[in-house]
Specification:
- Keywords: Membrane, Transmembrane, Transmembrane helix.
- The protein has one domain.
- The chain has one helix and no strands.
- The relative contact order is 0.05.
Length: about 60
């Protein structure tokens, strides 16, 4: 009986251990990629506007 309880306890212990480990890993993975795409989005956003205004002023002074 004690052996069965010990095996059940071990089973549930590792079950929850891997469950929370997986949850933590998934959360970290999701956060990392969210941050990565969010950062790149703003990076390209400002990068795009920088060149947009650059060419805007270039053509403005060129034609006028």
């Amino acid at each position: 009986m004690l052996k069965i309880l010990f095996l059940l306890y071990t089973y549930f212990y590792y079950y929850y251990y891997y469950y929370y480990y997986y949850y933590y890993y998934y959360y970290y993975y999701y956060y990392y990629y969210y941050y990565y795409y969010y950062y790149n989005f703003y990076y390209y956003y400002y990068f795009y506007h920088y060149y947009y205004y650059y060419y805007y002023y270039y053509y403005y002074y060129y034609y006028y």
